Amino acid sequence: MEHGLTLITTIAAGFGLALLLGFFAEKLKVPALVGYLLAGIAIGPSTPGFVADTQIASELAEIGVMLLMFGVGLHFSLADLLAVKRVALPGAIFQMSVATILGFLLASSWGWDMSAGLVLGLSLSCASTVVLLKALESRGLLETMNGRIAVGWLIVEDLVTVLILVLLPSFASLLNGSVDDTASLWQTVAYTLLQVSIFIALMLIVGRRLLPWLLWQVAQTGSRELFTLAVVAFAISIAYGAAVLFGVSFALGAFFAGMVMRESKFSQRAAEESLPLRDAFAVLFFVSVGMLFEPQVLIDEPLHVLSVVAIIIVGKSIAALLLVLAFRYPLNTALVVAASLGQIGEFSFILAGLGLSLGLMPAEGMSLVLAGALISIAFNPIAFAVITPISGWVLRHSALARRLETRDDPYAELPMSTERKYLEGQVVLVGYGQVGKRIAKALSGQDIPYIIVEQNREQVEDLRNQNVPAVYGDAVEPSALIQAHIADAAMLVIAVPDPLNIRQMVETARTLNPDIEVVLRTNNEDEFALLRENDLGTVFYGKEELAKNMMQHVLQRFDPQASKASRDP
Question: For residue 447, how many C-alpha atoms fall within 13 Å in the half-sphere facing its CB?
Answer without folding.
Answer: 1
